[in-house]
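Researcher: Structure prediction, please.
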Amino acid sequence: MELQTSLMAGALTLVIMNLPIIMRNTQESLKAVPQSYREGAFGLGAGKWRVIRTVVLPGCIDGVITGCILAVGRILGESAALMFTAGFAHVCNNMIEGLFSAGSTMTVALYVYAKEQGEFDIAFAIAAILMILTVLINLLALCVERKFKKGRS
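Model: Predicted structure follows.
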């Protein structure tokens, strides 16, 4: 696609890396819905789409959303693939131009500040922000899980 080293190349790399994880989580969540629920809905005369919409999706949506949130958490911590595809730059561009130019993620910036530049105060600040974001993402996953469990009861 001739994207060179850019944020768009980094984003596409992360999509390709995490799509199998999200697909597998979705597949396992769909398998977790008991077959007897589906058979019961078919026995009551529901069509295939109605069974999917009213029985299967409500039964697995919490697992799907939780898997997606945890995949976002994994994306947040990814650094190795982004160092080669997104690059490392300290410039601020506008939205469109910034997508197709080199950029930096927090994990890459943490590595550069800690290992290459020796500015540990900035590196520790970035690490604290990453830890806070990780805790917030895990709390979000917990809240979503509780909301859907409460909705089922």
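Model: Helices lie at 7-32, 35-43, 48-77, 80-85, 95-99, 106-116, 120-152.
Researcher: Thanks, that helps.
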